[in-house]
Specification:
about 350 residues, alpha+beta, seven-stranded mixed β-sheet, 13 helices, binds phenylalanine
Length: about 350
């Protein structure tokens, strides 16, 4: 028995472990209930009395050594995940794909930037509107067929609460709170109950603009819009204004630009006309100014409104509007731009 204990003392002093699992095996072998040390303690009864002292001391030493060794091996692996240090390759290059701005945000920021350079500030307003700000203040009489031009999503009827169909509602909010001069643009999301197709969606984005001061004329409107078209599409773009109708402007117009998808030859985007409509505009109707507490005998102004999707489609030659809303990264990551 004495030899056996000596052998085990040697074994425990030389023991090593490469991971927690090996430490645990050592503990089981020496110190568990059925481990070597407790078996030896059981056998201690059989030791003749004159040897009991010597064997007892040795046995206690074995037990203490085993405890010490196992504790110290265990502490080597404290707080470490097995194998972690060898599996991390600190020299491996980091492959991080930077995100990209959504094309609609890029174009919206470009539009804001162009108008900011000629003195326009940005204002935003609520997407859920009342009848007054979306229709009545804008000179849409009740039951007037012009309301049908914009297929409205109503949230409640009587009182009419709805999803705004244009950001002209923010023009009203701005005029109600400010006296001229007012020179502002109104970017935002708008809603119309239309069937979703390559050319139409029930949600889209607009930037509308408003300039009110003394002596603002149609010539100012025309010059501002021509300047905008050249900034956004390039010097070579051709522009034309056609007469149109909106209840809140008089006279009203629509502006077309030469189709840059086919270069004016004719394609399905420009419906083979060579021209694409990009915005509505006009001189603010005096009734609208009066509705907002602005004296129409002193002030005149112009307003315009454009769809960001339409302009983005032309700029980037995108043929299907639905792509803007699907968030397919293969589409989105093509737009790397600093705007
Ligand atoms: N609000 C109109 C629309 O959404 C656009 C517009 C704005 C037209 C301002 C004229 C003047 O269709």
């Amino acid at each position: 028995m004495i030899d056996k204990i000596h052998n085990l003392l040697k074994e425990i002093s030389e023991a090593t472990a490469h991971n927690r699992e090996e430490v645990e095996q050592l503990r089981l072998k020496f110190l568990s209930k059925k481990g070597l040390v407790s078996i030896l303690f059981d056998d201690f009864r059989l030791v003749p009395p004159e040897k009991k002292r010597e064997v007892g001391q040795l046995l206690n030493e074995l037990k203490n050594q085993a405890h010490q060794k196992i504790d110290s091996l265990k502490s080597n692996f404290e707080g470490k995940v097995d194998g972690a240090d060898k599996d991390i390759d600190l020299t491996r290059p980091v492959i991080l794909e930077p995100g990209t701005r959504h094309p609609l945000s890029i174009v919206r920021n470009q539009i804001i930037d162009i108008f900011a350079r000629i003195g326009y500030r940005v204002a935003v307003g609520p997407e859920i509107e009342d009848d007054w700000h979306n229709f009545s203040a804008l000179n849409f009489p009740p039951e007037h067929p012009a309301r049908d031009m914009q297929d409205t999503f109503f949230i409640t009827r009587d009182p009419d609460i709805l999803l705004r169909t244009h950001t002209s509602s923010v023009q009203i909010r701005t005029m109600e709170k400010n006296q001229p001069p007012i020179r502002m643009i109104f970017p935002g999301r708008v809603f119309r109950n239309e069937a979703i197709s390559a050319r139409a969606h029930c949600i889209f984005h607009q930037v509308e603009g408003l300039y009110i001061d003394r002596n603002v004329s149609f010539a100012d409107l025309k010059q501002t819009l021509i300047c905008f078209a050249k900034e956004i599409f390039g010097e070579k773009v051709k522009v034309r204004l056609r007469p149109s109708y909106f209840p809140f402007t008089e006279p009203s117009g629509e502006m077309d630009v030469s189709c840059n998808i086919c270069g004016g030859v004719g394609c399905n985007i420009c419906k083979y006309t060579g021209w694409v409509e990009i915005l509505g505009c006009g001189m603010v109707d005096p009734n609208v100014l009066e509705n907002c507490g602005i004296d129409s005998k002193i002030y005149t102004g112009f307003a315009f409104g454009m769809g960001i999707e339409r302009i983005s489609m032309l700029k980037y030659q995108i043929k299907d509007l639905r792509l803007f809303f699907e968030n397919d990264v293969r589409f989105l990551k093509q737009f790397r731009d600093s705007w």
